[in-house]
Write a structure and sequence with these properties.
Hypothetical Protein Ta0175, Chain: A, domain 2; 266 residues; three-stranded antiparallel beta sheet; Rossmann fold; nine-stranded mixed beta sheet; alpha/beta; 2 domains; single chain; binds magnesium ion
Length: 266
């Protein structure tokens, strides 16, 4: 699959000049070892100053998306792999959910309780992610953040989650149980529509997505302009859809490389 990845140089200047914004993953796309890289933070400001609309789209809790929306130079932030989003307008912060209906959200919470109970009994070594306090719509198990869970165990967890009717999403750090039909691509589409009235077609055509791992696969498939930072290569075996382009540098430095290419083209 890796030979299908094209270098950033192959990205057409015309496509980049027509961009309205950039949608990006956070962990291991902007961060290294959990910390936001300085190059990536500067790159976000440079892109925003050039008039691009930035959206963070992360598997992290909605509570973290609220902080990203409040403190970063972004238009908004989508959390929990598309379950909801926050944006800032002036001093005020606004929130939206993929599932607008409270009864549906309650049914989904019960599915998560079943997963929680079964994992406790059947995979007792599995630990919930340390960011669980900010989560409202999914469960996240730590498979690669503080813990290093072997792939075979992650596969068992995925099978258990799916047997309870939830989707399983694996990132570089977590394995998520997702009780609804959202993913990063659909969450981003809804959020951009809610915030700025961007049509789904415009999201696909005028926004670029950059990420690094399997929970980004839906977005790699959705956005014709999709980019992986170099560390995406480690996950290619588990990606149903690879990004179209790849940076030379990894993590936040790869994001900065992409930002430079975008700004150069404008
Ligand atoms: Mg990531």
């Amino acid at each position: 699959m890796s030979d299908r990845l094209r270098p950033l140089d192959a990205l057409s200047g015309d496509a980049l000049r027509g961009l309205e914004g950039v949608v990006f993953d956070v962990d291991d796309t902007l961060t290294r070892g959990g910390l936001l890289e300085p190059e990536a933070f500067v790159a976000m400001h440079s892109l925003a100053n050039a008039g691009l609309r930035l959206w963070a789209v992360t598997g992290r809790p909605l509570g973290w998306a609220q902080v990203f929306a409040a403190q970063w130079p972004v238009r908004g932030a989508v959390g929990e792999n598309g379950a909801g989003w926050w944006w800032r307008e002036g001093e005020a912060l606004h929130r939206g959910y993929f599932e607008g209906d409270e009864a549906t959200r309650e049914t989904q919470r019960r599915a998560l309780e079943r997963v929680l109970h079964r994992v406790r009994n059947e995979l007792p070594g599995m630990k919930l992610a340390s960011d669980r306090a900010g989560r409202s719509h999914d469960l996240a198990y730590d498979v690669g953040e503080a813990e290093h869970v072997p792939r075979a165990e992650v596969d068992r967890l995925v099978a258990l989650i799916e047997s309870e009717g939830c989707h399983a999403l694996v990132s570089s750090v977590h394995c998520h149980a997702v009780p609804g039909d959202w993913d990063k691509a659909q969450g981003a589409e809804r959020a951009l529509g809610a915030r700025d009235g961007v049509s789904p077609a415009n999201v696909r055509e005028r926004y670029l997505f950059v990420g690094d791992s399997p929970n980004d696969a839906a977005a790699f498939a959705h956005f014709p302009l999709s980019v992986g930072v170099a560390n995406v290569r480690a996950h290619l075996g588990r990606l149903p859809t690879a990004p179209a382009y790849v940076t030379e540098a990894d993590r936040g430095r790869g994001f900065a490389e992409l930002a430079e290419r975008i700004l150069e083209a404008r």
